[in-house]
Amino acid sequence: MRVTIFGTGYVGLVTGTCLAEVGNDVVCVDVDANKIARLERGEIPIYEPGLEPLVRANHASGHLRFTTDAASAIAHAQVIFIAVGTPPDEDGSADLSHVLTVARTIGANLARHAVVVNKSTVPVGTADAVRAAIAAELAARGANVEFDVVSNPEFLKEGDAVQDCLRPDRIVIGADSARAIDALRTLYAPFNRNHERIVLMDVRSAELTKYAANAMLATKISFMNEIANIAEQVGADVEQVRKGIGSDPRIGYHFIYPGAGYGGSCFPKDVKALEHTARAHAYEPRLLSAVEAVNAAQKRKLFALVERHFGGALRGRTIAVWGLAFKPNTDDMREAPSRTLLEQLWAAGAKVRAYDPEAAGEAARIFGERADLVLCDQQYAALEGADALVIVTEWKAFRSPDFERIRASLGHAVVFDGRNIFDPKAVEGAGLAYYGIGRGRSI
Ligand code: NAD
């Protein structure tokens, strides 16, 4: 099919590439001319495992094209995806300005029927707003063109995005038109071969499904962080508790890892946006508020441990940080717990030497040149001249380090394990003090 995708970020670029990979003719549009120029040259603006070879191969075969020319991209399409950002507004609601700009652009250019598919995460009722924006533009130029608007929320995970897109565990489609459902069934047929993955529903339910999924996952994380904090107070080890409860299939092992709090471009903003939606409909979402409050406190947890260890005297100290991305296998630092830690360390007068396998460029972009930050290109280089090591992101490369080398490098033999990736006995056996999250003896 002929597909156009507005927005070449994590969602748009991966979706466009995977649709091209199965033979569709895909045009990706972005307002960021620099991004489009880089993609044209075969440079991938984000780090996403497996994406680069797929983009290059499909670009070379002509199945995947990049442009800033929205009009020609709309003329090309049978199906038009909206995959632009929906960042939080000041009041926590989702900012729909990019989505509605695209809708107006579609209305201003549409010359024949197309199915408009909203893939951005948007509040309930947005499909109606998109439909109205397109219709208003069509009416303004006296054009009589039919179109459908469908909700098709995206569930890919950064770091696994290509695999999630090629082998989705579900494809949620919210639609009220048989013509649109047919088009999406055809488009998704290559990803829906072994068993039925398409979950058809009405548009509003599809819009809410995305928020419900992210709010549920955020709730699991905050729940476990709360248990970790209780474990710390009562002298229990949350890692043993985690295994003890995960073995119950009603609970399961997934997403019950305590840590330094959730971050990223989705959970924080989506929990806030769902809270906002609830309040706009006169419902007080008490659980969601608690999920957020626990997370905000958890993001400050590592600093609290470091500060307590050094008796509040952090001025002039240097702290080594392993991991800046909000999770492994991505370079994304949006709302990352590392940012909270760094800001707190700097405010307390400490310097930071940081290493991340992929996010150094992003960190340099966010923080710029500053005397109290050294971005290292090797993980052990971050330890040079440092007083302590803090693990913030659980990259695989950090899991079995040379603890003797860490002890020999650090001024003070102490490790703060913000993701509980180490066996405390192994760390202590090397002569290092160990602090984890909710592991009893951290107090
Ligand atoms: P992103 O910020 O990485 O990319 C958005 C892109 O849209 C940018 O390149 C921007 O330049 C472009 N854009 C903005 N206005 C435009 C316009 N008028 N025309 C064309 N392009 C325009 O965002 P993302 O992470 O890909 O997320 C996109 C949406 O998908 C959001 O609603 C997000 O909540 C949702 N989502 C994200 C993920 C994720 O893991 N990142 C997962 C599921 C859903």
Automatic annotation (TrEMBL):
GO terms for biological process: polysaccharide biosynthetic process; UDP-glucuronate biosynthetic process. Its EC number is 1.1.1.22. Keywords: NAD, Oxidoreductase. Pfam families: UDPG_MGDP_dh, UDPG_MGDP_dh_C, UDPG_MGDP_dh_N. The keyword Membrane does not apply. It comes from the Bacteria. InterPro entries: 6-PGluconate_DH-like_C_sf, NAD(P)-bd_dom_sf, UDP-Glc/GDP-Man, UDP-Glc/GDP-Man_DH_C, UDP-Glc/GDP-Man_DH_C_sf, UDP-Glc/GDP-Man_DH_dimer, UDP-Glc/GDP-Man_DH_N, UDPglc_DH_bac. Pathway: Nucleotide-sugar biosynthesis; UDP-alpha-D-glucuronate biosynthesis; UDP-alpha-D-glucuronate from UDP-alpha-D-glucose: step 1/1. Substrate binds at F155, L156, K157, E158, K210, F255, I256, Y257, P258, G259, G263, K327. NAD(+) binds at D30, K35, T86, T121, E158, K269, R334. The active site is at C266. GO terms for molecular function: NAD binding; UDP-glucose 6-dehydrogenase activity. SMART domains: UDPG_MGDP_dh_C. It catalyses: UDP-alpha-D-glucose + 2 NAD(+) + H2O = UDP-alpha-D-glucuronate + 2 NADH + 3 H(+). Residues 320-424 form the UDP-glucose/GDP-mannose dehydrogenase C-terminal domain. Catalyzes the conversion of UDP-glucose into UDP-glucuronate, one of the precursors of teichuronic acid. PANTHER family: UDP-GLUCOSE 6-DEHYDROGENASE TUAD. Belongs to the UDP-glucose/GDP-mannose dehydrogenase family. This is UDP-glucose 6-dehydrogenase. It comes from Dokdonella fugitiva.
